[in-house]
């Protein structure tokens, strides 16, 4: 089974509890205004064999305290997603959280096929004009669904938790070409602030943000 893959990273510390393995799908047709991940919108030019991927990252899987799958839009590749979570659950007992920009009603059949391999889903599109007050969510229309006892145990504290400064953290990574990318839920103006700071010091910041005043990454 193959998937369109954007990237994989370990550890991710800002998209759920513990040191997590992050897997990002490539391809998203939703085009939410304010998305900062427009690099994940096009379909993957090359597909990745999921078994080969799991073999490459097997050491991270055994260290991870949880797994977060995001994108892109993972449910645009439902068969690959189902296979991926099935194989991951064979390799590790830790929780699996999936972010989707689709309404839960639209993915519920796919979720039922994947049960019980998915513990938590955060659904609904990012809406830039909504308030942003809940942890792990870019806008307050997004819902957290606790699907298993493990999901309940790991995420119940987050379900209605309000964001405070302690939760305003981002993971920052550099790839081999020197490109920087972030994981986590930024405040609306975080990237504008960073851009202004860098420009004031004579640097340029090019982002993959959809052209609006505010940006979001999940
Ligand atoms: S925020 Fe997520 S769902 Fe929305 S366009 Fe960006 S990648 Fe797609």
Automatic annotation (TrEMBL):
Organism listed in the record: Orbus sasakiae
Record Gene3D superfamilies: Aldolase class I (3.20.20.70)
UniProt protein name: 4Fe-4S cluster-binding domain-containing protein
Keywords: 4Fe-4S, Iron, Iron-sulfur, Metal-binding, S-adenosyl-L-methionine
PANTHER family, per the entry: ANAEROBIC RIBONUCLEOSIDE-TRIPHOSPHATE REDUCTASE-ACTIVATING PROTEIN, PYRUVATE FORMATE-LYASE-ACTIVATING ENZYME
Cofactor(s) required for function per UniProt: [4Fe-4S] cluster
InterPro entries: Aldolase_TIM (IPR013785), Organic_radical-activating (IPR034457), rSAM (IPR007197), rSAM_sf (IPR058240)
Domain of life: Bacteria
Pfam families: Fer4_12
Presence of keyword Amino-acid biosynthesis: no
